[in-house]
Amino acid sequence: MPASASRILVRGVNWLGDAVMTTPALQRLREAHPNSHITLLTHQKLADLWRDHPSINSVLTFGASETVWSIGRRLREQNFNTALVLPNSPRSALEVWLAKTPQRIGYARPWRNWFLTKVAPSGNDRVVMRKRSVAEINRLINNTQYVPRMRDNTTYPAGSHQIFEYLNLAASLGASTTPTAPQLHVTPSELEPVVARFGLKPDAAEPIFGLNPGAEYGPAKRWPAERFISAAVEIHRKSPCRWLIFGGPADLAIAREIEMGIQKALAKTAGAPSPVNLAGKTTLRELCVLLKLCRVLLTNDSGPMHIAAAVGTPVVVLFGSTSPELTGPGLPGNTRHQLLTANAPCSPCFLRTCPIDFRCMTGIAVERVVEGVLRSASRPSR
User: Fold this and answer.
1) 136, 129 Cβ separation under 8 angstroms
2) Pairwise CA distance, residues 204 & 150, whole Å
3) 0.70 exceeded by pTM
């Protein structure tokens, strides 16, 4: 990288979970350019994710209604030497082209390559998350010769996880591609006000367990509410805890259902604390802090899953329509996290809704989930 390229713009991605998975690339970029000023451009909804992050010097945000022209104009005023474009969209490449940034680097994708000065090739291990057709799903589930593949002996290439796509792109600026776990930083000073606001007692005899029943992508990624209730109740009976229920505004109904279900089932259990329903009540930064307080998080494949792992909390994740090999939490192969699947022949289909009988999720038994949570919670905290 030229010595003059001292002001680096990183165009961040727009999905919460994907944003967390870019942190290894940002860390390696900082290591390669310790004296450069690195600015992250991100959607304003994700701005709090990057507070106090050591890999970047500053954050620029944009709103949902802001045009590509106004973003380009604002970037042009910053006089960046180099732009690293992490999303694959034409818009993100157009933004840095309009900013007249001299060096613009991103992956080769349709309708955008000529906006870039350097088109980076995709890694050899890249796996495209292709949605299955209904016809293909029916062929797979009707194949009597199908043998469920073992997830610990997968045929996915070693570098197929999403973090490698970002690492390989950062390598265009001299960064190392050696993987490291995604990390987000929560400072001790952030804990006290959040704990006080929600009336929590993290030092109490009963540890705090988290439960995240939502998934923004769609219902195909969500384990049934009644199973979350059954698992949470059984876990409490075997290991008394205080449940925090997480979720966004779209998860209010399911979070309330689970809250009431747990409360009703444990009503006659002496000393059992009521679950704390936090759905729609937390900012993104408060979510980071509260997930760090949890001994373990039981969750679907979701943005909060990635946050929890990145702040150091072990997660037990239910995977159905998506692939743990491609978008699992933390560093691939980390045994600290429990990634549960039903080994359905049609999974992963990458569809938002299941066109058949939802076997990829209903095939994950409550007993397996309970065992996974208790195993993770019993391990020493790090």
Assistant:
1) no
2) 40
3) yes
